Every structure is written in C-alpha cells, then in structure tokens.
Amino acid sequence: MCPQLDLEPYRREITQLAGSNCSHEAIRIFLLHTHGVCASTNTISRRLQSWGLRTRRLYLPAGARDAIVCELLRLSLSTEEILMILAKKGMPSSERTLRRTRKKLGIRLRIDDPREREAQEEEVELILMTEDQIGEIEGYGRRLQRVFLRRHGIFISEARAYEIYRSINPGAIERRQAGLQRRRKAYTCEGPNAVWHLDGYMKLEPFGIEIYAAIDGYSRCIMWIYVGISARTAVSVLRQYLDCAASNGYLPRKLRTDLGTETVLIGDAHLVLRQNPPLTSDVLPSRSLPSSSRLLPSTLDPATLQSLLQLREYFIYGRSVENQRIESWWGQLSTSSLFVYHEYFNQLLNDGIFSKQCIPEQIALLSIYMPILRSRIHSFVNDIWNVHRIRPQAKRPHVVPGKPIMNYYYPGPGVPDCQEPLDYDLLDWLQQDVAEWDPAEYLPSATLAWCHTQLHEIGLQEVGEPFDPEDPLIQLRGEREQPYRQVYEALRERALLYYQSGALPILEVSTRPLGAFRWGPNTQWQQGAEVEAAEYEDPDPL
User: Taking all residues of the chain, what is their mean pLDDT, rounded to a whole number?
Assistant: First the structure.
C-alpha cells in the first residue's frame, strides 16, 4: 500500500483556498505550481472531508472568464502561468479549455498558412515602423518587442518580429548589441521583498523632470516609479514609500539606497515600521540617525553606534554605483523610453530656446512633456518590463529567469516571500506628516489651466483639433528626434508674452517640499537636525 501523501504542512493554504470556493482542481494546480506537490483531486477531496471542509466550484459568466484569459494572454504569460493564476483566483481551467477560449477569441499563437503569415508580417511591419519613428521601441530587445506586440494584440514569435525590425532599422540593432558588451558582478537575493533597491534618475533634472523608483532585488519587479518635479527631497521619497506600503499592505525586509540626503526620512520611517513590537510616536529614534551612518564607527559614541547597528538590520546605505539592481534598470529605462527626450531637451538648450531659470520656458516644457513622459514611462513599466521574460543564462546561473511580475507574486517552490507585517496605525501616523504634499502636482492649478487653454487653441489653429498632453495628437508630433517641438515653441512664445505682461493669473512653478524634518504643518518630526535637499551627484553624467 502506498504511503499517504502528507498535506498537513499546506493545510492552512488549502483551507483558505477551500474557503474561497476554489475547486479541487484549482487546489491541485496551486499545490503543484507553488510547492511542487503532486496530489490528485480525489486525495484533496478526501483530505478536506477529513478536515470537515468541502469546496464549491466558483462560476463566472463566460464573458468575464474570456476577458480575464484575454488580458493574461496579452501580458505574455505562458499557459502554465495562466492556469496557476486562474487556480489561485478560484477559476480553475485546463490547457484544453484555454485552447478553446483562444479559438473563440480569435487568438492564434501560431499561423501556418503562408498568406496569413504574410498579412501578419505586414501588420507587424507597419506597427514597428510607426513606433520606430516615434522612438518608442529602438532600445527594445527580442523579448521586450514580443511583449510590446502582444499588448497590441499581435501574437508572433520573437525571432520573426526581431527579423522584421532588423530589416526596418538595422542601425538600432547594432547600437543595442554594442551597448550590451558589459560585465556585472553576481547578485543574489533570498526571495521577493528581501531587499527593495531605491534610487533617483537625474538625467532629465536640468529640464525640471525628476524620476525615482524602487525595484525588488529578487524578481526585478518595479514596485513604484515616480515621475515629477521632486525626486531629491526627503518628503517626496518618504511619501512614495508610504503610499507603496499602504497599497501593498506589507513591508520589505530591507531597503537599499545611496547616501543622498533625500533618504533621511525614509530610513527612519522604515526603521520605525520594522520594529517588533512597533515603537510608539513618543519613542521615535533621532531623525539625524541616517546622516550619522556616514561617520566611521571609531568616531561614534556608544549610543549612536548602537542606533547605527540597529538601523543596518533594516536599511543598507552605500554608493550609488554599488546599488546594482536599480542602476542596471536605469539603463533599460533610458535606452527604451527616454533617450529621445534627453537628446531633444539638450537640443532645445543648445538652440537657446530653453533655460530652467526662465520660468515661462520651464512652464511650457513641463505642461507639454510631463504628461507624455509619465504615460510613456508607466506604460513601459506596467505593460512591458514587469511582464517580459528574463531568459536563463548558462554563464550567470545566479540570474532568476522568468517574468518579474510572476517571480514577485508567484515565486517558485522553496523561495520564501520575505514581506514583513505592516502596522496600519503607525503608518497612518507617519502619513500625516507628508499628506499635504501632492506627488502628482507639477504645476500650480491656475498655471496648468492657463497652459491647457493655450494648448487647445494651438491645436485648433494648427490642425483643427485641440491639443491635449494627456492624449497628444500624432499629427503635431513632427520629427522623430524633436517630438512636438512646434507645439512647445508656440506655447513658449505665448508664455513669454503673457508673463511679461503681468496679467493674472500669474504664471509660476510649483514649490518642491524642501526642509525635510521642518517641512509641513506637523511638527512632530522636528527631532533631528535641519536637512535641506542636497544637490544630487550623478556618478554617470551624460
């Protein structure tokens, strides 16, 4: 007689799935893909009965199931990954059912008919030529291109798509291959949420646009990305972190940042939130603790040294160039989405029609390009990067293969999720100090409304349609290397004349939240030294 399969280690997870109306098949797939345990549905049924539980199959309207499957396919997920996600959501399925669903939706993963293949290749060529002219995909490799095409509803192999693009822009392929000849140190991480790497991207800072992001060290999934006017101030970085923690409902075990002064508040906040049991507001540590971490241990008094050692359990400081995971990703973002705008903005500077010190010119640039860049960057993160496949690498066995989003939310068997519990009461208390600052603001409301009115008029004057930066007209894009320059020059001219006239409303730029501990109406956090946002030292200036 075969020994009984031991499901007791997974009893809590199985009972939770059963309580969510997951079927036996859903539980079977979950155990197989999550823990590598092969159990039959009969075994699961008998075990649930012995635990006094039964399951009911969760039925959804056919249209809802089809919509979910279609979206998962557009995310470039494999059949196995789709089945696992459906099982965990209480909607079990099979490969045969997925094939029927794809056929019903008209989604074909493979086309054999020569005429249909030729028609598909023509469609792909048209899409790639259009996006290449915009500069959207020049830095994409095979996998990013495949994900990009799937988001457009095109299901084609990586090799076919890449060969089509090679015929369109061979120079881009050569530049990308030349840029990949680099070596990096081996990096390993225990599992999701073990370490989040944080850093700012300041290549566009001379033009008033700053970027800050966090990436999970194990999965390379982007946890958040901020595009705005303030990535070098402590209040901004703290607000981003607290918003992400509130959205997720948990904390990472550690944070890894550089030595910039924008991290002084987030360092203390993470330390406080990670205390077990949590500290109350009347015993918060000194706010000057992170800045003390730059001193040599021999120069610290015993109390400060003890606080520093405590901080290092939860927070890792170091040079920006050593923050490998996020620094590497900045290269991906730059070559894939930002290089066109970086070169174009520098061209405006060289042509003498932009200066950050000229308020009308800064307003004109921000009002047009901030919404465009936000949309472009968020689309790259959510629709391309987080769902692209990282291939196994024979010469770099430490690299975790798979899709970042799957490796983060559904790590393989034996990989621990290192998330830490979140004290919501303490989180609410911390959020009070930064609630007054709006990370979405990049121009005052009155100035932004004036710009929108002018842009609508410019669009009507040029092409007969109002221009909206949130959904810019392709007819006004102009040259690939200088997107919407005609619109910028027209708005700049209007802004200069209006600013010099002194008319109301007065055009002005938004104020960044400087001051760190002294910023805002709440004075509870004024326990440390006064810290202003220091100039960011970019280790790799362009």
Answer: 80
Phi, psi of 150 (to 5 degrees): -65, -35
Residue 97: CB atoms within 10 A of its CB come to: 14
Closest CA to 56 of 10, 18, 88, 97: 18
How many Cα atoms are found within 13 Å in the side-chain-facing hemisphere of 286? 16
Question: Residue with structure tokens 């940042």?
Answer: 257
Domain ranges of the chain: 1-107, 114-179, 195-352+369-432, 445-501
Please tell me the distance from the alpha carbon of residue 209 to that of residue 206, in angstroms, as a whole number. Answer: 8
Q: What amino acid occupies position 538?
A: D
SS percent in the chain: helix, strand, coil, step 5: 55, 5, 40
Residue 532, pLDDT score: 37
- Please tell me the distance from the alpha carbon of residue 197 to that of residue 297, in angstroms, as a whole number: 24
Whole-prediction pTM value? 0.71
Q: Are the C-beta atoms of 469 and 367 separated by less than 8 Å? A: yes
* pLDDT for position 54: 56
Q: Write the CA distances from 26 to 47, 55, 421, 516, integer angstroms.
A: 15, 10, 27, 50
Length of the chain counted residue by residue: 542
CA distance 520 to 522: 6
Quote the CA–CA distance of 47 and 51 in Å, as a whole number.
6
Instruction: List the alpha helices (DSSP H) in 416-444.
Output: 424-432
Beta bridge partners of 225: 213
Share of the chain above pLDDT 90, in %: 35
DSSP helix/strand/coil, 197: strand
Task: Report residue 458 as tokens.
Answer: 């410019």
Query: Selecting from 3.30.420.10, 1.20.1290.10, 3.40.50.2000, 3.30.70.890, what CATH number does the domain 195-352+369-432 have?
Result: 3.30.420.10
CA nearest neighbour of 266 among 297, 245, 249: 245
Using an 8 Å Cβ cutoff, are 144 and 389 in contact?
A: no
* Backbone angles phi and psi of 256, in degrees to 5: -125, 120
Whole-number Å distance between alpha carbons of 511 and 229? 9
In sequence order, what are the residues at sequence separation of 6 or more whose Cβ sits closer than 8 angstroms to the Cβ of residue 520? 235, 433, 434, 436, 437, 513
509: buried, middle or exposed (CB in 10 Å: 19+, 13-18, 0-12)?
A: middle
H-helix segments, 36-94: 41-50, 62-74, 79-88
Token readout for 75 is 């995310």
Burial of 168 (0-12, 13-18, 19+ CB in 10 A): middle
Query: Looking at the predicted structure, is the pLDDT value of residue 2 above 80?
Result: no
Nearest to 265 by CA among 242, 288, 310, 234: 234
Contacts with 70 (C-beta within 8 Å, 6 or more apart), sequence order: 105, 107
What average pLDDT does this structure show over 106-112? 79
Residue that is written with structure tokens 């810019």 in the block: 472
